[in-house]
Specification:
Blueprint: E1 3-9, E2 19-24, E3 32-42, H1 44-50, E4 64-65, E5 69-77, E6 89-93, E7 105-109, E8 113-115, H2 122-125, H3 129-142, E9 150-154, H4 159-171, E10 174-179, H5 184-190, E11 194-197, E12 210-215, H6 220-225, E13 229-237, H7 244-249, E14 253-256, H8 265-274, E15 282-287, H9 291-300, E16 306-310
Parallel strand pairs: 9-10, 9-12, 10-11, 12-13, 13-14, 15-16
Antiparallel strand pairs: 1-2, 1-4, 3-5, 3-7, 3-16, 5-6, 6-8
Helix pairs in contact: 3-4
C-alpha cells in the first residue's frame, strides 16, 4: 500500500482546487492507528478550509487531504496502541490540522476514534462525529441546557441541527426549530415541538422568553435572536462570535462553541445510536470522486442532515 486515492488541494480556492488523485499512503506513528476509510462525512468546516477562510486559525501545509469525519476499519496500529486491533470497525473525527479523511486510508491518533455504532452502516456512522461534538458542546457545555428549558435552534434541519434537536429532546427540553418549508414535517417527526418557516415568519415575532438560542446560521439571524431570550438566557453560536457588549445590553449571556474533540463523547454517541435514542440523518451519499458536488450541496446551506462521501464497501 504505497499509494492510495485521495482528494487533495494544492492551493486554496473554489471547487476547482479539489483534486481526486493518487497520493502516498500515510505513515503510522506512536499512539496512532491506520484506518481503511469506508466513508467520510462532509461538513462546512471542509469547504471553509478549502477556501482559505480558516487560514491563521488552523495551520495547514499544502498539499492537504480534506475531510475529518470518518468511519472505517483499523488496518494497523502503531506502538503504544492497546485499545484497537486490525479489523476493528471505528468512527471518529481526525485532527483538523492534519491530513484528513477524503482518502482510502488515514492515520489518526488512537484518542480520535472509538468503536463504531453496530446498528448503522459506515455511511451513517461517518455522519456522526463532527456534528454531535458541535451540538453537544454548544448545548450542554456552552449553554448548560437542562430539562424543562426552551431552546430555539436555527437551522434545525441541517447536520448539526438534527443532532441538536435530538440531544435537546433527550435532555428534556422544549425545542423550537427554524427551517425552510420543505423540512418542517421532517422536524416534527424528529420531535421538534414548534417549527417556524423562516422565509414566511419572523421568529422574533412568535418566540419569547427562550432560555437558550442555538445559532447555526449566523449574520442577521444571530442579531435578531437577542430579543427572544429571557433575562439571563444564553445565545450560543457555532458560526459567528456573539458580541459581549450586545449580550450585556440585553441582560443575557453569549458563548461561541467549537467542535473540539472530546474522546468521551464519541462512545456515548455510539451508545445512544445503538439504543435507538438518536439517529444520524443522511440526505446525500456520493462517491469520493464526486466531492465537488458534495461541496456544492454543503455550501448551499439547505441540505437536510448530513452529506457523506462513500469511499469503500
Amino acid at each position: 500500500m504505497e499509494t492510495m486515492k485521495a482528494v487533495r488541494i494544492h492551493s486554496f480556492g473554489g471547487l476547482e482546487v479539489l483534486q481526486y488523485e493518487e497520493t502516498p499512503c500515510p505513515e503510522i506513528g506512536d499512539q496512532e492507528v491506520l484506518v481503511r476509510v469506508h466513508a467520510a462525512g462532509v461538513n462546512p468546516l471542509d469547504w471553509k478550509v478549502r477556501q482559505g477562510y480558516l487560514n491563521g486559525w488552523i495551520d495547514h501545509s499544502l498539499p492537504l487531504v480534506l475531510g475529518w469525519d470518518l468511519s472505517g476499519v483499523v488496518e494497523a496500529t502503531g506502538p503504544g496502541v492497546t485499545d484497537f486491533s486490525p479489523g476493528q470497525a471505528v468512527f471518529g473525527r481526525a485532527d483538523v490540522s492534519r491530513d484528513g479523511t477524503y482518502a482510502e486510508y488515514v492515520v489518526v491518533r488512537a484518542a480520535e476514534v472509538s468503536a463504531k455504532p453496530k446498528s448503522v452502516d459506515h455511511d451513517h456512522a461517518a455522519a456522526i462525529p463532527q456534528a454531535t461534538l458541535a451540538a453537544w458542546q454548544a448545548l450542554f457545555n456552552g449553554a448548560g441546557l437542562s430539562s424543562g428549558q426552551t431552546v430555539l435552534i436555527h437551522g434545525a434541519a441541517g447536520g448539526v441541527g438534527t443532532f441538536a434537536v435530538q440531544l435537546a429532546k433527550l435532555r428534556g427540553a422544549r425545542v423550537i426549530g427554524t427551517a425552510s418549508e420543505n423540512h418542517l414535517d421532517f422536524l416534527r417527526e424528529l420531535g421538534v415541538d414548534e417549527v417556524i418557516e423562516y422565509n414566511k415568519t419572523r421568529f422574533e415575532q412568535v418566540v419569547q422568553d427562550a432560555d437558550v438560542v442555538l445559532d447555526l446560521v449566523g449574520g442577521e439571524t444571530l442579531e435578531r435572536s437577542w430579543a427572544v431570550l429571557k433575562p439571563g438566557g444564553v445565545l450560543v453560536s457555532i458560526v459567528d462570535m456573539p458580541s459581549e457588549e450586545t449580550a450585556a445590553a440585553h441582560g443575557v449571556q453569549q458563548r461561541f462553541a467549537t467542535a473540539e474533540l472530546n474522546p468521551a463523547i464519541l462512545p456515548e454517541m455510539a451508545a445512544l445510536v445503538d439504543a435507538g435514542q438518536i439517529k444520524p440523518v443522511v440526505s446525500t451519499i456520493l462517491p469520493l470522486n464526486e466531492v465537488r458536488q458534495a461541496h456544492t450541496i454543503s455550501q448551499s446551506m439547505h441540505a437536510l442532515g448530513k452529506i457523506v462521501l462513500h469511499v469503500a464497501d
